Amino acid sequence: MNDEQVHGAIELPAGSWWDWDVVAWDRGRFLLAADYDLTYHHALELVFTMPTFVSCPANFHDPEFRAPTSEELATVTRRLGETPPVLVAFEADAGGSEPVSCLIAADRLDIVQGIVLRYWREDVAPDQRFAPWVRPGE
Known about the structure:
Number of helices: 1
Order of helices and strands: EEEEEHEEEE
Oligomer: single chain
């Protein structure tokens, strides 16, 4: 996904990516985390670098990624003044009576796998890391 235009449906690695939430959002990064249950950890991250347009709920379930429509691409391009290098579209269950349409535009998209713990523990494995909000001893 790096250094190229992504306007098609993204493909996720094999896994049970049912539960999703926003883990970080600042000027330089918009990060979505996923797993089958986000209570203790997540194992998939979609890292959008330099996000320029975001329309999605803070947490959602079972997204279906698809290519953005020509109308969605035109709308985002008009708002930004240029075509974004990355435009990701999906429908997701946000708890309402019907799915929510979501769009995210950014300069880059990285898909990162690995266990990210959402709570403190002393015996963390070498291939695990902590979520940004976890502090030692908490």
